[in-house]
Amino acid sequence: MFLPQPEGLVCGVDEAGRGPLAGPVVAAAVVLDASRPPIVGIDDSKKLSAQQRTLLAEEIRRRALAWAVGQASAAEIDQVNILQATLLAMQRAVSALADQYRLHPVRVLIDGNRCPVLAYPVEAVIGGDGKLACIAAASILAKTVRDRQMCELHAAFPIYGFARHKGYPTAQHLAALRAHGPSPEHRRSFAPVARLSAR
Predict the structure, then answer these.
(1) pTM listed for this prediction
(2) Are 134 and 111 in contact (CB under 8 A)?
(3) CATH code reported for the domain at 10-157
């Protein structure tokens, strides 16, 4: 059960892809429409199946007052570190939302314990994707967008199996890394990739 939707134009933000060894980190920003009935089935994206996430993502895009996605590439992650890249992706998502819809949130609620620097009041909510519908909706959008991108990377680099594990360090992924070395989309600053790159 979610907490009541805060008053005014409140934007929820969450990310997907901090832990993988390859691909971008993706953030989404969502403002739900408080005047419409809640979207049934929204939950923390980790508790939903891929099919449920896909269907809910379509519903969120259709019924949210505003939504946008931002990301930071594997190269940017290597340049600034995963935390700073995650905050950068969040900044980009919120900026895109404000630019596309010409609206300005009264508050931005971030899942987790660290906040990006934004032009709006911002607050971190630990476990926010399980507490607030706007953050849960953002978690679903971020996850579905990133999963789709990893399937596209699979088409470009099929030897790594990105469509299956989405870049996470599974046994299959690590075996492919050992056999073939890293691709251009691998995060060379992450220890398992760095070890193999140094060979």
Answers:
(1) 0.95
(2) no
(3) 3.30.420.10
